[in-house]
TrEMBL record:
Belongs to the NOP16 family. This is Nucleolar protein 16. Keywords: Nucleus. The gene is Nop16. GO terms for cellular component: nucleolus.
Amino acid sequence: SHIRHAWDPTKSVAQNLAEMGLAEDPNKAVPIPKKKLLGMEVESDGREQGKQIVRKPYVVNEMEYEASLPEKKSNTLSRDLIDYVRYMIQNHGENYKEMARDEKNYYQDTPKQIKRKINVYKNFYPEEYKDFIASLKQEKMDVQ
């Protein structure tokens, strides 16, 4: 969006990028040094790029600032997976072999796969998991 706002449609791509202080060709911006071949030095092209004046440095500054901001974690689980895990725990407790034989195990997960899914749920929603287990214990006490 920063580039879009600073873009001048009357100029070429190279001119626009040069004014913003951005590189048009990354190979020219950061050249790879030539290596020595069998003891002989290979000379570089000898071309030096002329320094271009950056007229819009705020574009690069804004992009650097935006890149330095911490990334928001948006890790969530699908509603289907949450419902699946809660159903399995509610009906089978900690018996993963029984969960694997359950008719709602549509993807035919093995006991280890089910255990892994439950652990992922525990890690993503620790508070919700604790509340769910507490409500299950409360239900068992009410039934007895």
